Predict the 3D structure of the following.
Amino acid sequence: MVDVPYDAVTEVPPAEVAEVDLYHPRSWWTRYVFSQDAKVIAIQYSLTATAIGLVALVLSWLMRLQLGFPGTFSFIDANQYLQFITMHGMIMVIYLLTALFLGGFGNYLIPLMVGARDMVFPYVNMLSYWIYLLAVLVLASTFFVPGGPTGAGWTLYPPQAILAGTPGQDWGIVLMLASLILFIIGFTMGGLNYVVTVLQARTRGMTLMRMPLTVWGIFTATIMALLAFPALFVASVMMLFDRLLGTSFFMPALVEMGQQMKYGGGSPILFQHLFWFFGHPEVYIVALPAFGIVSDLISVHARKNIFGYRMMVWAIVAIGALSFIVWAHHMYVSGMHPKFGFFFATTTLIIAVPTAIKVYNWVLTLWRGDIHLTVPMLFALGFIITFVNGGLTGLFLGNVVVDVPLSDTMFVVAHFHMVMGVAPIMVVLGAIYHWYPKMTGRMLNDALGKFHFWVTFLGAYLIFFPMHYIGLLGVPRRYHDIGEAAFIPSSTHTLNAFISIMALIVGFAQMVFLFNLAWSYFKGRPSGGNPWRATTLEWQTPETPPGHGNWGKELPVVYRWAYDYSVPGAPQDFIPQNQPRATPVLQGAAP
Amino acid sequence: MAVAIILLLVAVGSVLFHIYSPWWWTPIATNWSYIDHTISITFWITGVVFFAVIAFMAYCVFRFHHKEGRQAHYNPENKKLEWWLSIGTAIGVAAMLAPGLFVWHQFVTVPADATEIEVMGQQWQWSFRLPGKDGRMGTTDVRYISPENPMGVNRDDKHGQDDVVIESGELHLPVGKPVKVLLRSVDVLHDFYVPEFRAKMDMVPGMVTYFWMTPIRTGTFDVLCAELCGSAHAQMRTKVIVDEQSEYDAWLAQQKTFAELSGRNAVTKATYRSGGK
């Protein structure tokens, strides 16, 4: 792993695309709009995801205004509140986080980090983005259709999702399902690209066990997504049929508002199984790229190899596999057979072991490191805290009997925001500060970055940590107004108002970040090609930002793993992966 | 230095918040204190891990932050340490899972002497049904639902005639008697949720779900819906009153049975219907 003789390197079958074979843009349109360059597609994905993510951010403000100061804002009623939570959840989970990690970071980093010229199917990759954009536009259009977007909650549970008691029953739910179907089609095109590129287009010497953990995380998450999204796809198609054609896949015989409906024989719980067979892996589809990226951020900025690389790889793979047999832990109180609880609680808590290994290895990487407290490192530290916090509350909700009182309360909301909202966003932000210089050739402003980090991290922690206790008290989620109940003390309202004010502040800090992105693009300090003095291939490109084809005339050849930092006896505290062996072979190092 | 202190303060602050939080679970009203104990065990184990990891991280930042001339150690892996940490984690996980599964076994094992009662959810109100003198409830079907028969009780079922039907009202339960709560919905998902009971379960149209409990103290408790059920989800409320047996009996005596509520009209219809077949 550390050092392989050149002879061994040549035995790795090359899968090179000659520079001339790439489809080079011939006009402004094919260079910047209908581009087949993975890096351009990555930026298109990222900008689109950020744009729709801002909509979701504004929705969260509106929700918090209602929760913090119920009755004050007459323009928010119960129906709108439900529409806000639904759109906020769906946008954040799928259209922002999934798209950003896989479509954004996946596209940008995979070819560069494995030493490929581009994705293996550039044209399909381009289509992937345009279908994603279409999905986003269809989703956004629901704000303007009669009845507005669906208010069924992001889980879209039938029967209520398609019945008249829920807002958005006319157009909202139909367009939501159509948008999801489009998203999955677009994602599949991109996802196949990422997987095949990792498997087939690695440069010479880039063995699987030399890949940076970023690539491992995105690669594994993509395989999971390719297996999990079809469950959502069929569930969406079946619900569309129930809504439009009157089939009864998920609809039992029922009476709505005194009217006997024509449905009969379907199962609402079947939808929940399909949804969570997708939905639980989805959590890790967001988490695994974050795990991989944060490993690299910590390693680079602590100037130390990631601790236990092989264990980290196997932990990613183990978590990915286990995450397919834990889905019904979202359904402990759904009415499914109670004996399922034994199985799913056991598998769910087992998954804590590889996850804990990852946490230990991150903090052990800091041990005896040379920790540079750069903005990416700060975000990595923020990630560890929020992830440990959110992961540990997962042990409450995964342990079936503990979940019974806590399910459907604000405890759940606090848990999943901490673990798959704040924690992955910490990584996204850290990663943008880390790779922005490669994408633009300029550094982001450091002072604005530190301000952004502290407000975001401390603010988000102050929002979601106390929220657990509102749930422990028993306040249910998805209530636009908790109203009067004997068990709710009035101090809860004060806490809710505090959380809402923090949410506004944290949201504002993101505007500072967006300003930083725009300002630094023009005025930022020039970064050079490798400002963090990192080992991985994307920092060794001949040009910054890298040109189409990434590597100029010759592909890089890889001689070592991705983590040769502070190697004893080396002249610098990092040795790039493509540097031929010159330093002595280490005795006693990892094989 | 400042960063390390802030990280440590986050850990210390979280623990202090936990200790001094005025927001805590409601005083329990059923036999499910086992659930509260399992939560307490989980809080202890996860709390220790949380504090240890963050404090260690803060120490690393304090001790190993960049200074001129510092070089990181080169230390790719440590098999022994990694295995010990894995085993320790597995033990901690088992210490939470074992009591959890033990209590879950109790949760899903309904005692034989539990009285069955029924809760029916619909947008956006609660109805209840109690077995009559024969101790059995009649069968139901959503197809039987009509303005005169809002719970859809089978008119041809003799067990159903003496069932006590409380449409859109409050539920009373006797203290100290185990009850199996049968849950039914006629339209969308609902969830019969009383925070003081700890136990809850979704109500699913097309099937009957259940949980069981023994109320251990008298009082009036809020019933909320815990599964999103549409526009008025937050307003779908009622109360459940746990009474001493004598008060409960007095209340029960005032309630109407299905036969009384549906009157002769229902009997005629039932006869006609069965005759028609």
About this structure: Residues 442 and 527 of chain A are 5 Å apart (CA to CA).
